[in-house]
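Researcher: I need the complex structure. Ligand is flavin-adenine dinucleotide. Inputs:
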Amino acid sequence: MAADTIIVGSGISGLSAAIVLAQHGRRVLVLESHVVPGGCMQMFQRRGPHGGKVRFDVGVHYVGSLRPGQTMWRLFRYLGVDVPVRPLDSECFDRVSLPSGDFAVPVGWDALARNLKQACPGEGAAVDAFVARMQAVERSLTWHSLDADAPGAYDRAPHEVTVAALLEKLGVSRRLRSLLLAQSSLYGAPSARAPLAIHAAVIGSAVEGPHYVIGGGDAITSRLVARLRELGGELRTRAPVARVLVSGDRASGVELAGGEVLHAPGVILALHPRAALGLMPPDAWRSGLRARLERAPECVGLFCVYGVVKGDLGEYAGRNHYLLREDDPDCFYRPTPEGPTDAIVNFSPPADGVQTFTAMSSAAADWFAPWHGTRTARRDTGYAGLKQRLTANVMAMLDDRLPGLRGRLTVVEASTPLTIRDYVNYPGGGLYGLEPSVDSQGINGVRRRTRYHGLWVTGAGTGTPGVLGACVTGFAVAASVLGDENLIRRVRAETDPA
Ligand SMILES: Cc1cc2nc3c(=O)[nH]c(=O)nc-3n(C[C@H](O)[C@H](O)[C@H](O)COP(=O)(O)OP(=O)(O)OC[C@H]3O[C@@H](n4cnc5c(N)ncnc54)[C@H](O)[C@@H]3O)c2cc1C
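Model: Output:
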């Protein structure tokens, strides 16, 4: 049976939109350009130092709000998937390591406020004010709080006021500022451009319910795809969409890169907004939005080192490590190709007895300019040499700040912004695609609706980065497509923990 809705992109936003629509009787077809589904949730495999195969996650190191009754947990439940998870260490799920010392980020806002007050004596009032503001903003985000009647839902300030502005108003010390900003790489915007809503949504979900996904991104993608098929939906990989077709003022289908045409009255583009722009008729969004999108900054690039740990993790287990080269965490947005560099280190639970690590650092897209016209696996020794140099910078930081693992880490692979560009089609290769800044959020935000009936855009770039944020955008676009103002209420009502 022909699909009535084509979803382009099989990341968590596309798959969740497809499942919600299929649950409501739509006939859905998901088209994915890559050879495997999942987008940023895809994993890849390499030969490890001992000859066996090792799998690495691209974009699912840990996910927040996964305790029973929390938002991510409820969204998975509504989608009908049971994803295996394991909580991170409640006393310290993220360890912040700055030149001025370490800080343990515990689970729960109250515990976090307690630790911050201990680390910054005399700043109790500022800590309380910051935490209260974050909690209020998080509650006001209807989909993140799953509260359709959330107080403050129409306030613009959370999308227009930056985190830097709030910290300045509160008059926080340099130390408190550094601790409050240390995890900003979870959303990828510097404090001077990060809106309160993004910080509250992303850091809030991490603080409230951080979990590893056992089996990594594959464990989510495989369950979502199975559920999609169970509902009669279809998924085609190796199906790059070249353009959206319209007839009059309506969407009518898509044309694949090979020329194949697929007709459907509904099309949802679940991908980077700038990639979406390239597929739609130029007038799909009004000129102001198009111009804003062309100007809106891309996230800082990612340079990521993947490897294997020999022996036990000991004190490093059960948490992520935010190793920052300066006490100002905004240094992550000023990447340097010289010397030990920032590294966000993740040690997911071992699989098949192999303990892997990923160490994410930032990178400027223009370092890789000489290879912009090339594709993965076809790059020259200059590219390999640059990767080696950047890898050494990252590993120098790990040696310095994780001394107990010195000599026990073997590097297996490294990726650059060009890798992200080529594997998930983020045109600028930014860490989360479009930077979630005041220039692309709130009143400046990317609109899901277009001027063509039946043509919609979704994905992390239309909302909040992260598995939860992108999943929320999938639900939100499905609610719009269905004209269902009650979806939030139903998700909450139908997913109460047993
Ligand atoms: C390195 C890294 C680490 C991360 N770590 C975490 C983490 O620990 N926790 C967390 O919660 N989040 C993390 N994230 C973020 C999170 O993974 C993403 O925000 C989220 O998965 C994005 O989902 P999406 O549906 O918006 O889009 P994507 O996952 O980007 O999916 C878009 C899909 O569209 C496809 N596509 C693009 N163009 C076309 C076309 N023309 N035709 C057909 N298909 C097309 C792409 O191939 C891709 O599969 C990380 C991201 C990265 C990159």
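Model: Summary of the prediction. The mean pLDDT is 96.
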